[in-house]
Amino acid sequence: MNQYESELMIEMLENADYIVIPETDINADIYIINSCAVTGEAERKVRQTIRHIRKENPDSKIILTGCYTQIPRESSEYETLGVDLVLGNSEKKSIVKFLNENGIYSKIDYWREDDISYEMVKDSIAERSRAFIKVEDGCNNGCTYCVIRSLRGTRIRSKPIEVVIKEAEQLITKKHKELVITGLNLGKYGKDIGTNLAKLLNEVSKINGDFRIRLSSINPEDLDDELINIILENDKICNHLHIPIQSGSTSVLKRMGRNYTADYLLGLVEKLRAADPLFSITTDIMVGFPGESEQEFQETIDLVSKLEFSKVHAFRFSERPGTRAAQMDRKVPGNVKKDRVEMLISHSQNVANAYKRKLVGKTTTVLVEGVMNGIYIGYDEYYIPHETNGGIIGDFVKTVILSVTAEGVVSKVAKKQVSND
Fold first, then answer.
1. Strands (DSSP E) along 339-384, which ranges?
2. Domain residue spans in the chain?
3. Architecture per CATH, 2-108
4. CA 20 to 30 Å from 107, out of 190, 371, 377, 379?
5. Which pairing describes strands 30-35 and 396-404: parallel, antiparallel, or unpaired?
6. Cα dihedral sign for 127, 130, 133, 139?
7. 226, 264 in Cβ contact below 8 A?
């Protein structure tokens, strides 16, 4: 979501004749930080980034926007950090209008009137080969630990299919080969405008051009049969999904307010892999949720083994302001959370390596995104990173997987088959 909205701001700024430079450059006149607030750690990194920029660039203007600014805060906090201008999620959509301002402009309940139908990125600047398309905002789920729905809003806002098609066509014309469809709660796309994600994907896949479609994070309960079937049957849609399960324990999931069980997750993955045994699933898992026992944590470890994830993002529970989980008893001690997350990371790496070994000898399609020291780098349809021996940056290449590395796989360009006919 933030990557897309950063692209949107970049286009607005460049259309207004500002020059946007790589973030690694120094001595910019203005620094814009598009922030996240999903965890306490994310907020800490925001503050750390601001302090670093202010120290290195004392005379530059610092603008802070994004979800961090949607949490009510004292103006003195921003002053102490050295921020000159604070913009909310609504105001950043008019970034050019505010550039010469100072102070705090952040409408907390902007989402009640928010409209995303006009948001359109014509050319993704940060990524040549991959482009993001935001199609939905807002979340009406009731997860007890999450603060984001109070920052982005509980009203579902969907972009009309015809607008998504126009945006996708423009990006494909600009040689973007992979379109990543994203939203705050992607599976709820269309609930407000009488359609759904399956219908959107079907229409996007009909666009002429050599490209593929990938979905960003989608909740398990939103993967109904109609959506699963179009993912499995449409050749333009990658056989990879990021499904944030959050826990492998049904009792923990209930306390989290997640609307599924461990058995449901097993059945869901079984459906996906019945069509493609190598179907790739990545996930997010939280450890140390209030009351999480050793047995419940072990249930998560066991489910990771059964579901054979290709990658797990493991992180520790952190209390977020105003959430029900922050008020729950039986807090898990910090040292226990630390030990559990380390154990989960180690275990999930072993599981991911076992999954990748199943790919050895298989031919997959890699989208080449860069080259370093003669090694071509990119991701295949399963979202597995490749180090391969050839290709053209920004284009697809068929490769045969040779071996597994800690980060991904090593492959070689497949030989073209010559017909005798």
1. 363-372, 375-379
2. 2-108, 109-238, 239-356, 363-413
3. 3-Layer(aba) Sandwich (3.40)
4. 190
5. unpaired
6. negative
7. no
Residue 323 to residue 102: CA distance in whole angstroms: 31
Total residue count of the chain as it appears in this document = 421
User: What letter does residue 222 receive in the DSSP assignment?
Assistant: G
CB atoms within 10 A of CB 25: 7
User: Which two structure tokens, joined as six digits, stand for 151?
Assistant: 């920052």
Which amino acid is residue 373, in one-letter code? N
User: pLDDT by residue (tens digit) across 283-295?
Assistant: 999 999 999 999 9
d(CA 27, CA 170) in angstroms, rounded, equals 33
CA distances from 411 to 349, 375, 395 (A): 20, 10, 16
- Bridge partners of residue 316, in order along the sequence: 287
- Alpha-carbon distance of 122 to 333, in angstroms, equals 48
Q: Which CATH architecture has domain 363-413?
A: Beta Barrel (2.40)
Task: Identify any residues that bridge with 364 across adjacent strands, giving them in sequence order.
Answer: 399
Q: Name the residue among 286, 282, 292, 311 with its Cα closest to residue 406.
A: 311
Q: Give residue-wise pLDDT tens across range 179-232.
A: 999 999 999 999 999 999 999 999 999 999 999 999 999 999 999 999 999 999
pLDDT for 421 equals: 47
Quickly list H helices, 119-238: 148-152, 161-173, 197-205, 225-233
Burial class (CB in 10 A: 0-12, 13-18, 19+), 419: exposed
* pLDDT above 70: residue 124: no
d(CA 193, CA 164): 14
User: Given 3.90.180.10, 1.20.1250.20, 1.10.530.10, 3.30.750.200, which CATH number is that of 239-356?
Assistant: 3.30.750.200
